[in-house]
Amino acid sequence: MRAFFHPDQRLHTPQQFMRAGRLAAPQDVPARVDPLLAALAGRGIAAERPADRGLTPALAVHTPDFLDFLAGAWGRWAALPNAGPEVLPNLSPYWNGTPGTVRPPCRSASVVAQAGHYLGDLAVPLGEASWTAILASTWTAAGAAEAVLGGDRAAYALCRPSGHHARADRASGFCYLNNAAIAAQALRGRFAKVAVLDIDAHHGDGTQEVFYGRGDVLTVSLHADPAVYYPFYTGYADERGVGAGEGANLNLPLAPGTGDDGFHAAIDRGLAAVRDFGAEALVVSLGFDSHAADPIGLLKVSTDGFAGAGARIAAAGLPTVVVQEGGYEVGVIGDCLGRFLDGFGGV
Ligand SMILES: [Zn+2]
């Protein structure tokens, strides 16, 4: 399996995020990359540097006003009197729009207003080099998608920062641009029906929203029950899509403490939906924060549990782009990826 990673993805070095009313140490540290690269190297895979594709992959999924904000916010923020080291919102705007549609651009040109508009929570700080890393992460997803479009059975995108919480016009949950949605949209260039299977511990709310009104991309997410876990507001089983997308969204919430058996059963259920949908290609949002050792996790999946996940997904027999999402225990995520690849098989 070919794999992709751009060295600029290390440049995003978040300093803080809000947790239970306190600014806490960041979880998405650049050191997450090293065990993942080591797992690849241990299996004879050298990650390839993806081509610089500018804004093209991002514009396939995201609004221009949102990308303008991400690209320029830090410089404008740094010019504020008494600015902190990172862009972080102090506003929480409310928008009573139709699900599956995109908001109008922010009415105000103030970077303070726009930080509230485009940054959905306090887990997406923007530092001086964040944009460079965010953009490179989209190129990594696009590179893996291009390999599969070119005939590879599967490809792995070592995306960081992650993407599945990012909406068309909003960052949240350590995610800025939606790498999995970018890969799925790219696969649509060749495949009429594409599915996204999200097995990160958190609901893939951004991916769901990007495709919520569309019938050509099925989104399936299995995750810890949002009634007690981030992102809280979405991820429930009754969210099935709207309009042309009615029936093309499936959420499989898992009880806290769910281990390998429940995890695998949900993957089987998700893959059955992928098959019934008639998907011709698959994007896997692969997170390791469902591991029992994850510092912000609620599930109890074992390291070997990811081998079972890989085997099941490979058995679906679809051209597959695997996109890295979360997983914050640096001591186990390399083994999790290694076991996933072992289960998937040497392709
Ligand atoms: Zn996650």
TrEMBL record:
Location of the Histone deacetylase domain: 30-340
Pfam families listed in its UniProt record: Hist_deacetyl (PF00850)
Domain of life: Bacteria
Names of required cofactors: Zn(2+)
InterPro entries assigned: HDACs, His_deacetylse_dom, His_deacetylse_dom_sf, Ureohydrolase_dom_sf
Family indicated by similarity: Belongs to the histone deacetylase family.
Identification of the protein by name: Acetoin utilization deacetylase AcuC-like enzyme
Species classification: Bacteria, Pseudomonadati, Pseudomonadota, Alphaproteobacteria, Rhodospirillales
